[in-house]
């Protein structure tokens, strides 16, 4: 057998095994030898320098974790001091066997780099405390799996006795990744702060990530596996992919890189007056910079990121192949970010891959755990773009965690329903060019709807279109209400889905390429919470959320709900009870007008008495000015047209003002008046008005 056979260095394997037998080395002694560890230099990775880290990262909250790992390696805490090896259970996954050649090549690379200790399998008899777990393999994106795969160590097997089960999670660094909406917020912030400048984004990548962190020699016995095809015992010396401790321990290093970048500014790294700190974000081994293109800020930010990677993780830490240049449109973290149009998109190839995987599972009706893991990977991005997808995504995650580790399982009906729902979202939903302003805190609503339900029926008012929905429950529904099977909370929640699918096509047509935010007002706190939190134990409510989520995706709409005090919610009497006395006789034919009058009163109640007087006074001034200018006081929905009219009014107020003083208004007063005028439009017309950025410059005092 040649040394290159199977891509494992067999000569090195045999020689090292013979040396271990001859010297009677323990596993700890063999690891010390392989990594050149001594009492003078205990560092398992010579590229990590604890003294250098202490100097660079003074003040970093997790500095002690980094220095300890650099000096001795990762030293986890375990619930059990020893665990017999699971030799019969250490059969490798079919994914590893299927891609055996590429997997062995990966292990050989680690063998050469000192990341894997590869010896003869019979050394298990000598090292009886070694715990063996199965190997698996996953495909890398844009790489032929016949030539390269990522080897995964399944350290969660067998359940209850695995390496991951025995890990004391309390020993892990307390670090959590920030959600990627931080990037959307950053872009929006820079656009508003620098409206006339270009915003650019850059992606950096750490090569090897977890593999820079070595495990202490006394703990590597938990990280072993067998390759029977090569009679090899493979012990992972670095933090493995598949160990539940790897992400947290590496996060301390990844966060340190971002922390160091954010501690600097152009003024601290070059001859510059710019003292604004750089922005840095990390997600595992991906690092994102978003900066305004002013002077040499971009160049200095990138250089700072590169220096931080090298200083913390060593000279082999930068993955040049995945280091992008500065761009206004970039694929990062699996999504396409556009800083010019301020949008976010899911790439078409990811959508197509997700559809293909769902179709395959639905056709077969069977799935392996690996199949579900791939589906989870394909659908993860939807939860960012569509908030209502999260609970259904979590259903699939929960099912995947409980799925049998080996073999195929029958898809349950709930899983089938969730997969079909995601299939509709992927095929028909708006998942491209989504405005960044919709991420993070929701912007002001574009449309307000008012709703209520009773034991007789439900009603939803849409003042913008001067329309309403009034639905009387039939005999079957009223029977279910009497039996407690159709609760008031569900009925109120149903109003939202009904209104969304009734008026959504209108909102889609007027919104063009932007997302419309619709606000529902209800006096039912549970329905409001079910809508906003997307969480309910009620199965009917879960199905209503499913209908709402599909409508949001298909019609490019996002909804939210707010509570309206019951004392002001008189439309319940006027609409949802209009089939009985006294409501049936008070507004039989003029119901719409009566409801609209009540609605306007409800909207007026949202203002304090003092504010209401100011808003009313400004509106009178506005109407008077529009009459003099022969303009309509109710502005058109076209943003350019109504912004121009508001700008003319602002100039008039600055120059002449109103009243007998003969003096113009201040800039703050003018902006307040614009807000007062804008408030009346969503109340009556259902859409917002305001000044375009070019018209929104402060008036001179």
TrEMBL record:
Keywords: DNA-binding. CDD domains: RNase_HI_RT_DIRS1. Signal peptide: none annotated. GO terms for molecular function: DNA binding. This is Reverse transcriptase.
């Amino acid at each position: 057998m040649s040394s290159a056979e199977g891509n494992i260095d067999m000569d090195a394997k045999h020689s090292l095994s013979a040396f271990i037998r001859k010297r009677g080395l323990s596993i700890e002694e063999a690891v010390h030898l392989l990594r050149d560890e001594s009492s003078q230099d205990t560092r398992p990775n010579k590229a990590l320098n604890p003294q250098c880290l202490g100097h660079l990262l003074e003040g970093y909250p997790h500095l002690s974790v980094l220095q300890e790992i650099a000096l001795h390696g990762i030293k986890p805490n375990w619930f059990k001091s020893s665990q017999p090896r699971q030799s019969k259970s250490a059969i490798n996954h079919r994914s590893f066997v299927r891609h055996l050649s590429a997997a062995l090549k990966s292990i050989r690379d680690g063998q050469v780099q000192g990341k894997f200790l590869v010896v003869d399998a019979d050394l298990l008899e000598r090292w009886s405390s070694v715990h063996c777990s199965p190997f698996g393999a996953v495909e890398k994106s844009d790489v032929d799996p016949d030539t390269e795969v990522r080897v995964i160590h399944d350290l969660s097997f067998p359940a209850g006795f695995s390496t991951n089960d025995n890990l004391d999670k309390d020993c892990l660094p307390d670090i959590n990744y920030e959600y990627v909406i931080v990037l959307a917020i950053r872009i929006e912030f820079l656009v508003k702060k620098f409206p006339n400048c270009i915003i650019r984004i850059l992606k950096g990548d750490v090569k090897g990530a977890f593999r820079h962190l070595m495990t202490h020699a006394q703990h590597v016995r938990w990280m072993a596996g067998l390759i029977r095809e090569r009679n090899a015992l493979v012990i992972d010396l670095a933090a493995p992919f598949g160990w539940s401790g790897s992400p947290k321990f590496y996060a301390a290093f990844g966060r340190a890189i971002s922390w160091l970048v954010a501690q600097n500014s152009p003024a601290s790294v070059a001859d510059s007056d710019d003292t604004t700190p750089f922005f840095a974000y990390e997600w595992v081994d991906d690092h994102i910079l978003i900066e305004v293109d002013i002077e040499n800020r971009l160049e200095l930010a990138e250089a700072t990121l590169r220096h931080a990677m090298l200083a913390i993780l060593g000279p082999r830490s930068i993955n040049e192949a995945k280091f992008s240049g500065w761009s206004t449109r970039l694929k990062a973290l699996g999504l396409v970010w556009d800083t010019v149009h301020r949008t976010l998109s899911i790439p078409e190839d990811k959508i197509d891959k997700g559809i293909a995987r769902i179709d395959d599972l639905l056709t077969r009706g069977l799935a392996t755990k690996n199949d579900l893991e791939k589906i989870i990977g394909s659908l993860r991005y939807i939860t960012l773009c569509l908030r209502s997808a999260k609970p259904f995504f979590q259903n699939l995650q929960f099912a995947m965690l409980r799925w049998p580790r080996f073999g195929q399982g029958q898809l349950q009906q709930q899983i089938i329903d969730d997969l079909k729902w995601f299939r509709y979202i992927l095929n028909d939903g708006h998942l491209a060019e989504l405005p960044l302003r919709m991420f993070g805190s929701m912007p002001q609503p574009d449309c307000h709807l008012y709703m209520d339900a009773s034991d007789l029926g439900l009603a939803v008012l849409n003042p913008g279109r001067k329309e309403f929905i009034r639905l009387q429950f039939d005999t079957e529904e009223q029977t279910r209400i009497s039996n407690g099977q159709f609760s008031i909370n569900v009925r109120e929640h149903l109003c939202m889905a009904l209104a969304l699918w009734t008026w959504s096509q209108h909102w889609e047509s007027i919104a063009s390429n932007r997302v419309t935010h619709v606000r529902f007002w209800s006096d039912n706190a549970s329905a409001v919470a079910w809508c906003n939190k997307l969480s309910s134990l009620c199965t009917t409510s879960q199905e209503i959320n499913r209908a709402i989520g599909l409508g949001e995706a298909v019609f490019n709409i996002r909804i939210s709900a707010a509570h309206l005090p019951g004392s002001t919610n008189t439309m319940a009497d006027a609409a949802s009870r209009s089939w009985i006395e006294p409501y049936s006789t008070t507004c039989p034919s003029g119901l719409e007008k009566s409801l609209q009058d009540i609605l306007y009163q409800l909207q007026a109640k949202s203002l304090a008495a003092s504010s209401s007087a100011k808003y009313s006074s400004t509106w009178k001034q506005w109407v008077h000015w529009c009459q003099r200018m022969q303009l309509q006081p109710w502005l058109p929905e076209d943003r350019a047209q109504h912004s121009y009219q508001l700008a003319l009014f602002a100039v008039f107020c600055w120059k002449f003002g109103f009243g007998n003083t003969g003096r113009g208004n201040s800039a703050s007063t003018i902006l307040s008046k614009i807000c007062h005028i804008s408030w009346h439009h969503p109340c009556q017309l259902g859409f917002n008005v305001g000044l375009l950025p070019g018209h929104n410059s402060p008036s001179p005092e």
